[in-house]
């Protein structure tokens, strides 16, 4: 008579912790990358518009969110400068033209300087960012695979 001994090791808690950590870190990476691209693609004259682009991460109740925001007021008119530069039609100045285009180090895309520098960067980022997130999750899966 043969005996077969089966041992099951439950690593689910460690796996879920590692997965949560990796997703949170990847979300931060994506936010920082998108901020860098938006800053690189933003028209620039004084630097106020570029400096106003901020990123905030939220990791509550299992939901990971990264918000890219920009708030800048035209010092001469008091008008919403972000709306005008994001949605408006205008000619780029010399400093903006010299910037060329912004490159994403994670999302594998480029965004030209000028209008739609915030939302346009986000649209271009989707496929590359999804791939990045999948790679990060796969790395966790491989660590726990046996």
Task: Characterize the structure shown.
- The structure is a single chain.
- This protein has five helices and four strands.
- With 146 residues, the chain is of the alpha+beta class.
- It has a two-stranded antiparallel ribbon. Strands 3-4 form a two-stranded antiparallel sheet.
- The mean pLDDT is 88.
Outline:
By secondary structure, the chain is an alpha+beta fold. Helix content is 50%, strand content 15%.
Question: If you compute it from the alpha carbons, what radius of gyration comes out, rounded to the nearest whole angstrom?
Answer: 21 Å
Structural class by sheet pairing and helices:
alpha+beta
Strand residue content: 15-25%
Specify the helix fraction band. Answer: 40-55%
In order across it, which strands form the biggest sheet? 1-2
Descriptors for this entry?
two-stranded antiparallel ribbon, single chain, 50% helix, alpha+beta, 146 residues
Secondary structure layout:
Layout: H1 12-41, H2 48-51, E1 53-60, E2 63-70, H3 81-87, H4 94-99, E3 101-103, E4 110-112, H5 119-144
Antiparallel strand pairs: 1-2, 3-4
